[in-house]
Amino acid sequence: MSYAINAWLNGYKKIFCYSGRERRRDFGFFLLIQLIVFFVIAFIASRLFGGSGVVAEIVAYGFVLVSILTMLPYNVRRLHDAGQSGWWCLGWLVFAAAFIGAALVMKPTVGDNAYGPDPRAGL
């Protein structure tokens, strides 16, 4: 278990290191522990600040932002270990930006639909 914790902490120690290589096992442990920590933080935040409170969401989104900032250099080093350029990470960023952009500009249906009532009803 201490190896897994060290692999996770290594992600934070090398948060600005985009050179070198990382092992698959270290990267897997980093992702696993990062996911566990996210759920623990989300659970604690929901209990402290209310189930659907704005503060709980801000805490969760803040941790997601920190996770992305630590995962990016870890991914680059993992790609280096596979003999690939770290620039491949930009492909995922472009995909995510396109997905979020599409969700922001999609026209909503007016009135109720198969997924529930119109959230704008009564406004």
TrEMBL record:
This is DUF805 domain-containing protein. GO terms for cellular component: plasma membrane. InterPro entries: DUF805. Pfam families: DUF805 (PF05656). The chain crosses the membrane at residues 29-49, 55-74, 86-106. PANTHER family: INNER MEMBRANE PROTEIN YHAH-RELATED, INNER MEMBRANE PROTEIN-RELATED-RELATED. Keywords: Membrane, Transmembrane, Transmembrane helix.
